[in-house]
Design brief:
By secondary structure, the chain is mostly helical. The protein has two domains: about 1-75; about 80-130, no CATH class. The chain has five helices and four strands. It has helices spanning about 1-15, 20-70, 70-75, 80-90, 120-125, and strands at about 90-95, 100, 115, 125-130. The strands form two sheets. It has a two-stranded antiparallel ribbon with strand order 1-3. The longest helix has about 50 residues, at about 20-70. The radius of gyration is 34 Å and the shape is rod-shaped. The structure holds zinc ion.
């Protein structure tokens, strides 16, 4: 469409070039405006097709990354019983830690933690975390 519009624009430019009066130039000018509109539509369609291709590529990259990391099977399984217990727990700790934390504390994020009740936390000789202030 862009090529057709540019060709029509060139044709209109050539047609108007020898006309001296406004009455003779007006039809060529109208044709040039129409040709410019055709160019605009072509450019918009070209951009939309490009955005679709980029979106399709982004989805493929995410899919490939998940496949390469083996996350597709993990995401399909959902949380394990141990992970569900930790998510429902009010307090967590991990081996080697001197403090107990809330499950959403950034200091335990990504670590293998075990759930514990507040009574367990007080009897286990663990201190309160200063970050999450559990
Ligand atoms: Zn904490």
């Amino acid at each position: 469409m862009v090529v057709v519009g540019l060709a029509a624009l060139g044709f209109c430019w050539y047609g108007v070039s020898g006309k001296a009066t406004l009455d003779n130039q007006t039809p060529w000018l109208s044709g040039a405006v129409l040709a410019y509109a055709v160019c605009d539509v072509g450019i918009v369609l070209w951009l939309v097709a490009g955005f679709r291709a980029v979106r399709r590529g982004q989805r493929q990259v995410v899919f490939d990354t998940r496949s390469a990391l083996g996350l597709s099977a993990v995401l399909a399984q959902g949380p394990t019983a141990e992970q569900a217990e930790v998510a429902a727990a009010t307090l967590v700790t991990a081996p080697g830690m001197m403090r107990f934390h809330r499950p959403e504390c950034p200091l335990v994020r990504g670590k293998s933690v075990r759930a514990m009740s507040p009574a367990d936390a007080s009897s286990a000789d663990l201190a309160t975390c200063g970050v999450c202030e559990s």
